[in-house]
Amino acid sequence: MDFLRPETLAEALELKASRPDAVPIAGGTDVMVELNYDHRRPAALLDLTRIAELREWTPGLRVGAGVPYVRIIDELGAELPGLAMASRTVGSPQIRNRGTVGGNLGAASPAGDTHPVLLASGAVIEVASVRGTRMIPAADFYLGVKRNALEPDELIVAVHLAPAKGPQQFSKVGTRNAMVIAVCSFAISLFPEENRVGAAVGSAAPTPRRAHQAEEFLASALDFSAPKPLLDSVKREFGELVSQAASPIDDVRGSAAYRKHALAVMARRTLGWAWQELLDGEQQCA
Amino acid sequence: MRVNVTVNGEQRQADDVWEGESLLFMLRERLGLPGSKNACEQGECGSCTVYLDDVPVCACLVAAGQAQDRSVRTVEGLADGDSLDPVQEAFVEAGAVQCGFCTPGLVVQAHDLLDRVPNPSDPEIREALAGNLCRCTGYEKILDAVRLAASRR
Ligand SMILES: Cc1cc2nc3c(=O)[nH]c(=O)nc-3n(C[C@H](O)[C@H](O)[C@H](O)COP(=O)(O)OP(=O)(O)OC[C@H]3O[C@@H](n4cnc5c(N)ncnc54)[C@H](O)[C@@H]3O)c2cc1C
Ligand code: FES
Ligand code: FES
């Protein structure tokens, strides 16, 4: 096995082009488990942790693939509340000190916690190779169970996300607060100025996915210009449509039926919280 | 491969390191530092917690090669000669150690918490230690130890 240690992104892309079999390693919180248990024996490891460009974020917002969760929580909570909420639920402090959004995208597990948020908030994934840069909308990035849109010579460079223009929420079901792979998860983003809603489910289909019908229903049912308290019927219908967007399976973490039920509950609750935040904001303005 | 790394303030060199090996394995088996424990090798238990460039991480999830030119501080590096760190002393006094397997990781993690938050609330202590499992104590004495260490700093 080779251990490749590029210092710059350009060098890393050269290496990945000449060694497409090299497995990138960032925080290592997925890769090292596979190595320790001999589930994977790559021909080479490509260490990305020395590349300063990957560990920066810039206003606007472009978040480097190698920014660890702890920094998203500490530094970007105001601009990216949804992503920060999801980041807080990842693993444990030690995992959050090390794990990255780039690694979550690289692993592309249907249960990865950042995915529903990236989908609901319309994130765009910047990937690069020596051939150039591609901007891939999150909705086109997840192709199958642990499969993403990366070509063998490409690396994930950054995630582009506009600072939140309205309330965002994330919710996850698991057996305890820490150290839990989601049984299922849900993210919602409100875009009041555009009369638009983003909603996406995690761990409830072969890939994380958007709940298009639920999004459209809410956008037509809600009055963003003069928000009034939510009708129970709207919450219920939204929950139903979110649940219908999922195609979960029975597995060790939960049954398909439970996941469908839990998604509807999470959808209703997070909508309630997000809408309340909007109402409270209106009152403060008035 | 060869890995050069600063461990507990000392420049160290490990030879014949396998490229897929963890920092934990290198510390324990090549650098003679068995303080950090290996219990799960999958990031679940926290008994391998060490500082990597001042940030607590699971050493089992860091590739040894990623520690090249970096600085590692293990539980062996907390005491000052024969005098224990206040966190270590508090663990002894509070009876927070039974079999001791989880202790090195908990001590490093609690040490980091008290560096960042000198007077943590109970929820803050619980959150900080959420990635460290103990099969013996039931955690109450561990919480006592962290509160005791905080009161003395
Ligand atoms: C104890 C424990 C608890 C966990 N809890 C959670 C949880 O609650 N929620 C959750 O979502 N995940 C969880 N995980 C999984 C993991 O922590 C996350 O997926 C994390 O985001 C991975 O990031 P990393 O930087 O450590 O990735 P790595 O392990 O370094 O890499 C993961 C994958 O992505 C690839 N990769 C990494 N960076 C790039 C890049 N820039 N370009 C291309 N490919 C890249 C790697 O080749 C690999 O295939 C947990 C893991 C452990 C060990
Ligand atoms: S041995 Fe590293 S977390 Fe358990
Ligand atoms: S004292 Fe035995 S595991 Fe904690």
UniProtKB/TrEMBL annotation, chain A:
It comes from Lentzea aerocolonigenes. One of its GO terms (molecular function) is oxidoreductase activity. Keywords: FAD, Flavoprotein, Oxidoreductase. InterPro entries: CO_DH_flav_C, CO_DH_flav_C_dom_sf, Diverse_Substr_Oxidored, FAD-bd_PCMH, FAD-bd_PCMH-like_sf, FAD-bd_PCMH_sub1, FAD-bd_PCMH_sub2, Mopterin_DH_FAD-bd. Residues 1-166 form the FAD-binding PCMH-type domain. It holds the Pfam family CO_deh_flav_C. This is Carbon monoxide dehydrogenase. PROSITE patterns: FAD_PCMH. It comes from the Bacteria. SMART domains: CO_deh_flav_C. Signal peptide: none annotated.
TrEMBL record, chain B:
SUPFAM superfamilies: 2Fe-2S ferredoxin-like, CO dehydrogenase ISP C-domain like. The keyword Iron applies. Pfam families: Fer2 (PF00111), Fer2_2 (PF01799). Residues 1-78 form the 2Fe-2S ferredoxin-type domain. It comes from the Bacteria. Keywords: 2Fe-2S, Iron, Iron-sulfur, Metal-binding, Oxidoreductase. Signal peptide: none annotated. InterPro entries: 2Fe-2S-bd, 2Fe-2S-bd_dom_sf, 2Fe-2S_ferredoxin-like_sf, 2Fe-2S_ferredoxin-type, 2Fe2S_fd_BS, Beta-grasp_dom_sf, Diverse_Oxidoreductases. Gene3D superfamilies: 3.10.20.30, [2Fe-2S]-binding domain. One of its GO terms (molecular function) is metal ion binding. Coiled coil: none annotated. PANTHER family: OXIDOREDUCTASE WITH IRON-SULFUR SUBUNIT, XANTHINE DEHYDROGENASE IRON-SULFUR-BINDING SUBUNIT XDHC-RELATED. This is (2Fe-2S)-binding protein.
